[in-house]
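#lab-general

N.A. 3:47 PM
ok so I finally got the sequence cleaned up, no stray characters, all 267 residues accounted for. can someone with queue access submit it? mine expired

B.Y. 3:52 PM
send it over

N.A. 3:53 PM
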Amino acid sequence: MKQMRMGLLAAGVLVLAAFPVSARGTRDANTLTIGATAVPHAVLLNLIKDDLASQGIKLSVREYTDYVTPNTALIAGDLDANFFQHIPYLESNEAWNAALISAFGVHIEPFGLYSTKHQNIAALPNGAVIAIPNDPSNGGRALLLLQANGLIRLKAGTGILATVQDIESNPKNFRFQQLEAAMLPRSLADVDAAAINGNYALEAGLTPARDSLIIEGAESPYVNIVVVRRGFETDPRVLALKDALLSAKIRNYINETWKDGSVTPVF
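B.Y. 4:20 PM
back already:
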């Protein structure tokens, strides 16, 4: 009997290990913990803390500087939601896509190519070194931006996960350096140009619409989304978060703060 009890206890420990406490249900039903990158995501979330507090919901915002940890922390149950990514990025990782889901979209941050050495794309020299993100979705996004502006040509049928191996034509013999997205602004001094995500450009003090050599148009499909674990998207706290973020207050703030279109609401 003692051995049976020990066996059941061990099985219980295995179950708890597979399903963290917060993944089975938030420890505090009145708290919503969300991970976000600083600008504009955490900025927008901090604006609605009082709105949620008036509904009895405490919004706890944890800031991250990279694109990987917020997803692993969400799957582990350390977060209830995150706000930093777009759907192509979420879908680029099978484990993330299996466990997580987009609850709703909020805004677009146009992706741009920047340089501190050259004034326009025509000035990029033969053999120029261009830094791009090293994750599949944003690396492909950078290459598609370069193709859209006639700088390279990708193989026919290449989609959003294009890689440098898919480059079919490279007239100026550009050399590509693949870096973690957060490092790209700091790479500007060492490369001819860098393709930088909007949030990291803003954090680095860049104004995408003014400072970029080229930038995505309004047709960009890369909407920034709030992500939760599958099955959690209808939780009342998530629905309250959605109402607060997709409000006239936030839309007006975005439009007034980023009049140049560096951040554009989709609601």
